[in-house]
Design goal:
single chain; 210 residues; alpha/beta; Rossmann fold; 2 domains; three-stranded parallel beta sheet; two-stranded antiparallel sheet; 5 strands; 43% helix
Length: 210
């Protein structure tokens, strides 16, 4: 990405076609240069060039509030807020929502707000019952976001990571099915949520939420 911004490589030279999907291309971030090497103008130019050939451009933002995350949020049209059902993770996500609402390009230019979606990862109904993590309702009460999907805690994610294969390609795994559901919902298909226990979590019971 930085090499394209600095004119050291063309976009065609930097893009890598995914071996599992011919229509998916990846533009890697720099592993050696500091995120301060990115500029708002440079990132904007690269995204404008990508828009000529791609319908969807996904910017994988790092956790935290550093420059790379700010730039990804600044240019966003849609935002997928990925969080774990833990208090610290949900609080971090809440801070991200504040930045999206006040410092994104759409906010600065008084345009239509960014569409925000909630992705809840590493979810375990059993641990919710034990009071070890927040329930889906707990997280939605805090963040007030539309739930796009819940990815269950699953060994298949670790196995996929170790093998270098996206878990969504493992159609028999619960995590793979959950990601496929998320993509379908985002594209407008109506799919029921799976892998969720509707019973109240420990935190909702503790505070008497209805």
């Amino acid at each position: 990405f930085v090499n394209v911004i600095n004119g050291e490589a063309t976009l065609n030279q930097a893009l890598i076609r995914d071996k599992n999907c011919n229509l998916l291309y990846i533009l890697p971030a720099s592993q050696t240069r500091d995120k301060d090497a990115l500029s708002q103008e440079g990132v904007g130019k690269v995204l404008d060039e990508l828009k000529k050939d791609f319908k969807y451009i996904v910017c994988d933002s790092p956790a935290g509030i550093e420059k790379g995350a700010h730039l990804a949020m600044y240019f966003a049209d849609d935002a997928f807020v990925v969080t774990n059902p833990e208090v610290s993770s949900v609080r971090d996500s809440d801070r991200m929502l504040g930045i999206l609402a006040s410092k994104s390009r759409r906010a600065v230019d008084n345009e239509e707000p960014i569409k925000e979606y909630l992705l809840l990862t590493r979810y375990s109904p059993e641990r919710v019952k034990l009071g070890e993590m927040l329930s889906v309702d707990d997280v939605q009460d805090i963040l007030s976001l539309h739930l796009l999907g819940v990815i269950p805690e699953s060994k298949s994610v670790l196995n996929a990571s170790n093998s270098g294969t996206p878990v969504i390609l493992d159609e028999k795994s619960d995590a793979g099915q959950a990601y496929a559901d998320i993509v379908a919902r985002y594209l407008g298909e109506n799919r029921p949520h799976r892998f969720i226990d509707d019973k109240k979590g420990f935190f909702r019971n503790l505070f008497g939420s209805k």
